[in-house]
Each structure stands twice: as C-alpha cells, then as structure tokens.
Amino acid sequence: MGFDRVCGAWDTFSFGANMTLRPIAVMILLAALGGYRLAAQTPQPPITALPTAPVAKDAAKDAATSDRTPADNAGRADAYYYFTMGHIYEQQYEATSRADYATQAIESYKKAYALDPKSPVIGERLAEMYWKAQRIRDAVNEATEILKRDPDNLAPRRLLGRIYLRSLGDFSAGNGNSDAVAKAIEQYREIYRVDPDDTESALWLARLYRLRNQPDQAADEGTDAVETFVLIRTV
After folding, report:
1. Which residues constitute the domain of residue 91?
2. Which of 167, 169, 168, 121 is nearest to 146 (CA)?
3. What is the residue-averaged pLDDT of the chain?
C-alpha cells in the first residue's frame, strides 16, 4: 500500500532537478532512508512501484493491520532502501554513462530482489538495467524468469521485444535473423493480445510479418494489425 500511492513523485523530482542540486537532494534522501531503515517496524506489501519520498508516512498508516514480525518488516525496509539506491544509481548512469553507476544500480537491485523476491517491479528494473548496461544475456534471462511466473506481465515482454528488434538491424535493408524475428513476433503477439490498444506493438507486429513475407498472417492478429500493415505498405 505504502509503495503504491505516489509512484510518480520520485521520477518527477529526479528528472526535473537541476544537476547542481542533485547531490544535495541525494544526500537528503539517503539520510531519510537511513532513518527509515532503523525505525521501520511497520508492514509493507511487495514493492510494486518506483520509490517515492512519502513512503515512511504511508508505512506508518499500515502498521495497525500488520501480522508481520519485526524481522519481516526490517527486511522489507531494507528491500525498499536497496531498490531506491538502485533507482538513484540507474538515473546517475543515464545522466553520465559511467559504468560504475551501472554496476552499483545492478547490485542494489539484486540486493533488493533477494529481500523481496515476490516483487515484480524489482525484477523488471533489474532486467531493464541489465539491458541498459549491455548485459543482454542477463536481461533476457531475467525477463524470461519473470514471464514464467507471470506470462501477462507486459514490461518484460516489451523489453524482450526491444532486445530482439535491436538484434535485427535495419528493417529497410531486409535484414533479419529468422530466430530473432520469430522471438520478436512472439513477444509482440502476446503484448497485442493482452493490450489490444497498444498500437505501437501492433505496428511492430505488422512490420515483422512483412519482414517474413507473411502479410496474410497479420490478418489473423486482428483488424488493427491489418490496417497498420496496409498503411506501412502504402508509405
């Protein structure tokens, strides 16, 4: 409950902050998180959203309904701490491209995941960070493991779709490893099945069928995919 209420606040703050203020903001956040780790004796559900500043206040409101032990709550607080640290390092990596930030982000997410293995968002962020750090095999393995537990989870499917598309190179040149094309089609077909309003996935699905010279197959995926395929052919 506490992790879900204001999931956009941290990203809005971090991306909007002036770079000169970021070190000060990080120090303040780390101090708050340190205090939260020491004081947290309150229940928390698995982490299901990106970290946010008011979590400690929300966590206190959940305490009355808790049947968790203090050790459980301390472990959950540590998971939140490491997840937040991973998010900080991930954004530092995006801003600087420094490999040490990527490594620290991955290690922080792994520590959080070890403490809260049922949290889907930690696994998603870890897989995404592997991809950003060019650890493609690790990204694929992590995303695949998430899908084994939750086949309808769209975040790892979209990540796998991007990975397989990237491996295909230039579409206009007609390039395409048949195995990678098949894997990409599998991901975008499932995304489109779960979310028929995802027009971007329908677009990629249609383009992938065109790459395999299978325009008729697009018809089997639904009207929107067919319309997208026709539009592509007329460009």
Report:
1. 1-130
2. 121
3. 74
In a domain, 231, yes or no: no
pTM, two decimals, is: 0.66
**Total tally of structural domains belonging to the chain:** 1
Residue carrying the six token digits 């998010």 = 87
Please give the Cα distance from 210 to 113 (Å, whole number). 40
Provide the token pair at 150: 């939750």
Instruction: Kindly state whether residue 2 falls inside one of the protein's structural domains.
Output: yes
Question: Would you say residue 224 lies in a domain?
Answer: no
User: How far is the C-alpha of 211 from the C-alpha of 17, rounded, in Å?
Assistant: 43
Amino acid, single-letter form, for residue 186: E
Tell me the pLDDT tens digit for each residue of 92-123.
999 999 999 999 999 999 999 999 998 989 99
> For residue 187, what pLDDT is reported?
96
Are 139 and 128 contacting, i.e. CB atoms less than 8 angstroms apart? yes
Q: Kindly state whether residue 19 falls inside one of the protein's structural domains.
A: yes
Q: Which helix (H) or strand (E) holds 137?
A: helix 136-149
The model's pLDDT over 168-189, given as tens digits with 9 standing for 90+, comes to 875 555 555 788 899 999 999 9
Contacts of 143 (CB under 8 A, 6+ apart): 127, 156, 157, 159, 160
Predicted confidence (pLDDT) at residue 38 exceeds the cutoff of 50: no
